[in-house]
Amino acid sequence: AQKVTQAQTEISVVEKEDVTLDCVYETRDTTYYLFWYKQPPSGELVFLIRRNSFDEQNEISGRYSWNFQKSTSSFNFTITASQVVDSAVYFCALSPSNTGNQFYFGTGTSLTVIP
Amino acid sequence: NAGVMQNPRHLVRRRGQEARLRCSPMKGHSHVYWYRQLPEEGLKFMVYLQKENIIDESGMPKERFSAEFPKEGPSILRIQQVVRGDSAAYFCASSPRGGTAQETQYFGPGTRLLVL
Description:
The complex is a heterodimer. Chain A is an all-beta fold. Chain A is 0% helix and 53% strand.
């Protein structure tokens, strides 16, 4: 079975705090890809990152960083020094190799950054 | 910088009417995907199309729903005889290539369908 769990439904932080969004996935495929998308209030989904299952290096892009741990099937997303513009719903998605065209999404985490 | 375009952004229909949702992929993309997002849920895959071909429709309801991606023009998701349970946000995504897990899908802004 393919599944993505984002246990945190809603998170509120005060501006400049760090925040980590959790993502846990299930798949029997040995090759798969993981994605994070941001959905701001305007509604579109903005691609943030893609990671393949063979690359466990953490990645940093500005204030964003991602921690991929195969041992715990997690792909967590951290925003450091959060800003009001980070307020959005964030989705984690799984793309297994045996279903080469469909993504499996978590239910999303709604992040509110309070000024 | 034309991303994936979807229209209309909002659509209101009465029960029994037809809904037609349009999606224009990013320039250079010939693979289109449709997803549905029900309230409080994540996006669920519906169908994957290439130009003039349906590749995977495993997520499509068996009745009332159809999709096409003609040689010219946008992809269309059509819902006949809508019911209240069809109320959802429908997202379209596109990619330059398809059929592999590694392809990033770029999403449009979605169409919010409300069935009265």
